[in-house]
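TASK: fixed-backbone design
INPUT:
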């Protein structure tokens, strides 16, 4: 046998054996991908046992969910990015992501260290990318939440959710909680089943769904209430042009998470920097009065989101993520 080939086979065998050994050493994994373990049962990936796998980069890369124009949020978060630089003593770079799948993949591949994920994608980021959520925007009393609302034109004839039958309705993206998964789970009890009773068209983002309704591209759209309210405050839309025909119970808004393999001292430093920061006037205006990053526990805070997914026959595992990523990519091409 060729010496180089034999050497390659030995390396491959050792790699496979190491992977199998690592997986067999994991007592609990739940919905987490095979690369991660959850021995303590908190539903997020544990810190790798081998300290050689811990990361302590000289440059921290962070991003915020592409729920709207990423450039807008890079500017809004600029004071915080500067704070994070001073607080951690590291160079900090804000990375503009164009889709939920791209953001999750960036953390999974190790190119993204800290990120704000939308509500639905948070669960995929946890299971597929090893994200560890630690905060949600909020106040001294509570974390910030939002409702799933269904908007339609005020001048139209849709008065209640049952009137969506036979209509063209914009969902945002497959992995979105309020823009897709919650409607699929909650609407059937209201007498309307997405795709069976109305045509689903993916717009890509909440703001694009809202503007599409205004232009007449869609008859209605399920969106996050906080995005709708921010657009109204900025003057991008007039609330008088719309009618809200449905409002759900409260869901947590975007989470902030760090990669599971950050060195413990760095992870502690990053979370402390988030918790200590107080939003300036521009950030408070942009984020509905929130003035800080409120500490949360993923297992308990995201329970309503996981429950909605389960009720709709959805999951947040790797196979479901790959399916949603493909659907999101296909929607962007249309």
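OUTPUT:
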């Amino acid at each position: 046998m060729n010496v180089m080939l034999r050497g390659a086979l030995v390396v491959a065998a050792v790699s496979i054996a190491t992977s199998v050994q690592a997986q067999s050493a994991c007592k609990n994994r739940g919905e987490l991908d095979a690369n991660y373990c959850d021995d303590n049962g908190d539903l997020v990936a544990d810190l790798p046992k081998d300290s050689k796998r811990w990361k302590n980069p000289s440059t921290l890369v962070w991003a915020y969910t592409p729920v709207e124009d990423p450039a807008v949020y890079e500017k809004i978060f600029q004071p915080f990015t500067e704070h994070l630089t001073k607080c951690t003593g590291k160079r900090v770079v804000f990375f503009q992501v164009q889709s939920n799948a791209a953001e999750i993949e960036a953390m999974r591949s190790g190119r993204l260290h800290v990120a704000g994920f939308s509500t639905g994608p948070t669960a995929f980021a946890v299971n597929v990318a090893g994200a560890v959520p630690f905060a949600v925007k909020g106040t001294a009393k509570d974390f910030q939440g939002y409702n799933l609302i269904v908007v339609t034109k005020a001048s139209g004839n849709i008065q209640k959710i049952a009137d969506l039958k036979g209509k063209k309705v914009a969902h945002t993206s497959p992995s979105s909680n309020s823009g897709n998964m919650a409607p699929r789970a909650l609407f059937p009890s209201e007498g309307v089943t997405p795709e069976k009773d109305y045509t689903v068209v993916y717009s890509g983002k909440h703001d694009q769904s809202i503007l599409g309704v205004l232009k007449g591209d869609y008859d209605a759209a399920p969106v996050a209430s906080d995005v709708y309210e921010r657009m109204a405050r900025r003057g991008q839309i007039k609330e008088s042009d719309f009618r809200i025909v449905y409002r759900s119970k409260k869901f947590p808004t975007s989470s902030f998470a760090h990669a599971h393999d950050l060195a413990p001292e760095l992870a502690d430093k990053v979370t402390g920097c988030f918790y200590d920061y107080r939003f300036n006037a521009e950030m408070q205006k942009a984020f509905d009065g929130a003035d800080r990053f409120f500490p949360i526990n993923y297992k308990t805070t995201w329970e309503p989101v996981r429950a909605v997914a389960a009720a709709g026959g959805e999951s947040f595992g790797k196979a479901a993520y790959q399916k949603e990523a493909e659907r999101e990519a296909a929607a962007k091409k249309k």
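COMMENT: Residues 2-23 have pLDDT under 50 and may be disordered.
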